[in-house]
Amino acid sequence: MAAEMEPPPLGNAGETDFRELEDGEDLFVSTVTTLEYPEPSSPEPASLPAEDISINSNGPKQKDVSFDDDPEDLFAEATEEVSLDSPEREPILSDGPSPAITPVTPTTMLTPRMDLGAADMFERSLDEIEEDNNGDTFDIHIAVSDPEKVGDGMNAYMGYKVTTKTSMTIFNKNETTVRRRFSDFLGLHSKLASKYLHIGYIVPPAPEKSIVGMTKVKVGKEDLSSAEFVEKRRSALERYLMRTVKHPVLLKDPDVIMFLESSELPRAVSTQALSGAGILRMVNKAADAVNKMTIKMNESDAWFEEKHQQFENLDLQLRKLHASVESLVCHRKELSVNTASFAKSAAMLGNSEDHTALSRALSQLAEVEEKIDRLHQDQAYADFYLFSELLGDYVRLITAVKSVFDQRMKTWSKWQDTQLLLQKKRESEAKLQFANKPDKLQQAKDEIKEVRSTLEGKVEQGEKDFELISKTIRKEVSRFEKERVKDFKAVIIKYLESLVQTQQQLIKYWEAFLPEAKAIA
Amino acid sequence: MMEEDREGLLRVSAHTIRVTEAVRDGDSLTFIVISQKLSGSGEYHVARTHEDFEWLQQCLFSQEEVPGVLGVIFPPLPAKPHLNASTKVLKQLGFLVMGKEWCTYCKALEIYLQQVAANTRLNKNKCLENFLTSSDAPGQQRVRKSIFNRLSQAVEGLRKEGHKDVDDFFQTERDNNFTLTGCSKSATERFLDVVLTEQKLAVACGHLSTCLHLCVEQRDDGTAQAFSQICVKLSEVVDLMKKNFENVAENNLSTLGLGLDLETRYQEAKKEMLYRRTCKLVELETASKNAERAKPIRKAAMDDLKMKSEKEFDQISGVAKQEIARFHSVHVKLLHQALILWCEKQLETAKETSASYSQHLQAFKDLGE
């Protein structure tokens, strides 16, 4: 299991955001400026895929990541669970030399596995794709269900059923069901990220890997915590897909459509073993630090400054909220345990009591308490799956947003570097005018001129790219803001409904108990 | 005022006794005890400290003149409330000290006094009258030595609890009591855990509400306003949740919590009575043996002792039987009341909370896009 370190992309001023997914680790991108992602309907933990997200790769550098269910890669995740707040959750940006080439155009990003149709799609501008709905209104519902363990031992994995119901014409059928495994989701995300992140689209992060969780499942531990883990993951996968398709551009991506529709998907394989990844990570971290220091962007646009600050604040607040809600969930579970315990001792007390009516009332008391315990459990479930996961998703989403802002900065940086290079070439060209070697002069002049004009083209392209990504980000942020409000509102309404329901059920229980209590002679 | 002082009759009607509040005076608590005159012509207001209550209890324990007094199930007095006590001590006192402003503790004292005043073997004691009516605090008066001390000295070092009884009725009572004491103690402790967790949840909600307020953004634009609005509205709901937990916890401890606590302490009091009787039984059996084996010179004296012991034992058993019958109806009544009150209060709180939640849900749905 030697680490295969993939060489930097050819011709790439490889700024690759390589991140190896580790459990619980969020793939944050360093925060330069952060975009608010307008679309996430069910954002997953904002993890960038452990993919090589090149800003300007000329090929799909699928730096294979270790997926937790890759049998060869036992050690890939042999790292600790990293909490949401761990300082380790810094994004890993690889530092490469400033690219002197143009940012990749989508067509060149096609992976060998990409289908036809992809080429078609990318010939139009992404803007056009976004607007064009073929007359469809957004109507799609995805469900992830029926987790089933496939295989056994350490080679086992969990398969999920993905059902898509839609009336939209970009899909072949109104209802499709496919089976997917976790690495498929990660693979999808990695493809989307490599295609869209560098041009300013906020790609919803895929759910996190978890060694501890998955190992329990693999070794067949059939206990409550494994079941909870699987449910948590299932829910996260569902939210991830919904958020992805809510993005008008991503929805139409052939990889997405293929993921939802095609019965067989080529497996996303991993080749990174721990040591290789570890070294790479270290390198990337160091490079990233340098990167942060050296890229000082002349922010001419106050909007980006503001947004950056805003997202920093939001990030902090959401984390605090998340921690607070987790505490609530924890205590409520404790309450459930204590209630159940009390119910048992009340039952025992009822059994020991001589007086018949009192004995009966005490037994009823025990039953009521058991029912209340179940209510507590239901409420804790809602606390977690609605409230806590929403907050967790947004914390992770914001890191994806930040990464997009970061991409913009890199785009700017590339452009500037190209400009500098052009400057130098112009100077050289000017010098040549005064050289004393007439025979070589013309040849040299011609060469320089050629290089210079190529560079001029590149500078122009660089500027265009920068403007484009800035424009895209503005749009994305606006969409993210709106979506955030909608999302929170929708989830909170559901949460409130759960509170109301629990409360009304509780009233019923008390009303049923009252005559029992009064019936003691 | 001078009223006809019928010998031995309490001037106060038992069920009107109230302990209305606890007044904090530095490090000590003073309880206001109010009772209605039997003649109906007014009430007595007195202020008593826990020492005063202890004095009363000691008085009751020292009533040698009451035949078979050892067979009385003495209403248990709640332990002294420490104001700035460690958590451990507080936990021992449990529900009684957890309520708002000592309400539950006052209620426990009130029930104590009512039970003492309702027990015909205890309420003729001048001390009780003194306690309820005298404007002077009785706590400083010296009390006769408690009869219990003498008894326990007599049987010190010997474990009598398991001693087999001569009477099936009592053997059954002892066995049942043993089980019930364990069960009620366990139930009380677990209920205490429930209430403590509810209080923790209230605190957690408070934190959450604060965090939500911190999310409010000052910016002018539409979405920032909308998000801030959501956060504010949600924090209102969380405040409701907090209030609900606080109310639920308060209801729990002031009704069922108190009831379970009383039940536990009363079962313990009954246990103590049964134990005293058992000790007396052992004493009797020892005296009988001694009388049998006594040499002729001492025989008469031994026989006398045996007769005395027998008489006392029979008196105690007689009293005990009556007390046990009374106890059964009292403890059923107490738990009964606790359960009803508990259910009613929780139902009321649940309805209030449900109405509030529904209101807020609607408000949320009405929030503009």
Name the strands of the widest sheet of chain B in spatial order.
Answer: 1-2-3
Number of helices of chain A: 11
What class would the helix/strand composition of chain A place it in?
mainly alpha
Helix percent of chain A reads 55-70%
CATH topology of the largest domain in chain B: Substrate Binding Domain Of Dnak, Chain:A, Domain 2
Q: How much of the sequence of chain A is in beta strands?
A: 5-15%
Shape of chain B: elongated
What pattern of helices and strands is seen along the backbone of chain A?
EEHHEEEHHHHHHHHH
- Give the N-terminus to C-terminus distance of chain B in angstroms: 75 Å
pLDDT average of chain B, as an integer?
A: 85
Distance, first to last CA of chain A: 77 Å
- Helix count of chain B equals 8
Major β-sheet profile of chain A? 3 strands, antiparallel
Calculate Rg of chain A over CA atoms. 28 Å
Structural class of chain B comes to mainly alpha
What is the multimeric organization of the chains shown? heterodimer
Which consecutive residue ranges of chain A, at least 5 long each, have pLDDT under 50?
1-123, 271-278
- How many DSSP-defined strands of chain B? 3
Count of DSSP strands of chain A: 5
Inertia-based shape of chain A: elongated
Q: Helix share of residues of chain B?
A: 55-70%
Textual characterization of the structure:
The complex is a heterodimer of chains A (521) and B (369). Chain A has 521 residues and is mainly alpha-helical. Helix content of chain A is 58%, strand content 6%. Chain A contains 11 helices and 5 strands. Chain A has helices spanning 118-123, 126-131, 182-196, 211-218, 224-246, 248-251, 254-261, 274-294, 302-352, 356-433, 438-518, and strands spanning 16-17, 53-54, 140-150, 157-166, 175-181. In chain A, the strands form 2 sheets. In chain A, strands 3-4-5 form a 3-stranded antiparallel sheet. A two-stranded antiparallel ribbon of chain A has the order 1-2. In chain A, a hairpin with a 6-residue loop joins strand 3 and strand 4 (157-166). In chain A, helix 4 (211-218) crosses helix 5 (224-246), helix 9 runs antiparallel to helix 10 (356-433) and helix 10 (356-433) packs antiparallel against helix 11 (438-518). Mean pLDDT of chain A is 74; it is low at 1-123 and 271-278. By secondary structure, chain B is mainly alpha-helical. In chain B, helix 3 (103-118) packs parallel to helix 7, helix 6 runs antiparallel to helix 7 (222-293) and helix 7 packs antiparallel against helix 8. Chain B is built from 8 helices and 3 strands. Chain B folds into 2 domains: 1-154, PX Domain, CATH 3.30.1520; 158-369, Substrate Binding Domain Of Dnak, Chain:A, Domain 2 (Up-down Bundle), CATH 1.20.1270. Chain B is elongated and about 110 Å long. Chains A and B meet through helix 9, helix 10 and helix 11 of A and helix 6, helix 7 and helix 8 of B.
